Amino acid sequence: xxxxxxxxxxxxxxxxxxxxxxxxxxxxxxxxxxxxxxxxxxxxxxxxxxxxxxxxxxxxxxxxxxxxxxxxxxxxxxxxxxxxxxxxxxxxxxxxxxxxxxxxxxxxxxxxxxxxxxxxxxxxxxxxxxxxxxxxxxxxxxxxxxxxxxxxxxxxxxxxxxxxxxxxxxxxxxxxxxxxxxxxxxxxxxxxxxxxxxxxxxxxxxxxxxxxxxxxxxxxxxxxxxxxxxxxxxxxxxxxxxxxxxxxxxxxxxxxxxxxxxxxxxxxxxxxxxxxxxxxxxxxxxxxxxxxxxxxxxxxxxxxxxxxxxxxxxxxxxxxxxxxxxxxxxxxxxxxxxxxxxxxxxxxxxxxxxxxxxxxxxxxxxxxxxxxxxxxx
Length: 377
Hints:
The radius of gyration is 33 Å and the shape is elongated. The mean pLDDT is 85. 70% of the residues lie in helices and 9% in strands. A 4-stranded mixed sheet has the order 1-2-3-4. The protein contains 12 helices and 4 strands. It is of the alpha/beta class.
């Protein structure tokens, strides 16, 4: 058997004895630890005093700490006075966790529920931390963009085409399917109501304007959020907790230019293109309802659509999609780079990124809709 990773020595001391343990205490050497420490403690007569010197212990795991605590408790029950001395840092905290005074229960009391003021304070503190992190991210991003404009070659474009493929072409099927279904659902609901009042010819107006101005850009951005936004947050979050981002800084690379800028730029390119495809397929969903449900000739629907929707309406949706893409990319990357807490932290960052992006998309859509309605008025 290999030699244990610790050494144990017993020496007489005035009025008792001293047991010195050095090295690493782990459950791998649990049998040897139980035998040697137990033998040294068993040699102490009742009423004796003993000092357990642990200043030379560099590491203790939970199993070894439990063995030591059990031996000390059984020895104290025989009337031997034992004092643990010299433990430092992590070994001291772990041994204190397993410590149990004679005559007292070793079970820890249940933690008390925090009060209302404590919870309010925690929320305020977490909000301040989030605000500070966001402002720091914005400052770093601004500095990174300025440097990228001055030195375009410093931007990492090696994965740019891959980012375009993952965010764009890989998402085309789901974007087309969802927008077609949204157009068909909107067309069906509109056709039912319009048919009651003899307004079948206005179905193209309803579907076309709703898809091009509102639902096309918004639904496309939501789908890209679920695909690319969550992926960006998870990727950067994993890189952060694995200290890969710190390694980039050590190598003199700016994470904003190396990681954030190419991803945001890829979204600025693909989201408007996906929005255009979504607009076309969404209006075709309305066409399917017009032909299949209202028995309306396709040429009538298309002529009404051409009359109702102009380039200004299309440009409105595309302008929205650009701002949606910027918000999506920046929020997802910021949440990823601010990840803390290992695998659980990556999950929280990804969830937070999706929730915050969806809120931002709806808020931006409401603001743009209000502004454009004032301009139309």
